[in-house]
Amino acid sequence: MDLAAHLKQHFDEGIELRSRMAQTLPAEIARAGEALAAALKSGRKALACGNGGSAADSQHFAAEIVGRFERERPGLPAIALTTDTSGLTAIANDYGFDRVFARQVEALGASGDVLLAISTSGNSKNIIEAVKAAQARDLVVIALTGRDGGAMGKMLRPRDFHLNVAHPRTMRVQEIHLLVVHCLCEVVDNVIYGEKK
Question: What are phi and psi of 18, to 5 degrees?
Answer without folding.
Answer: -60, -40
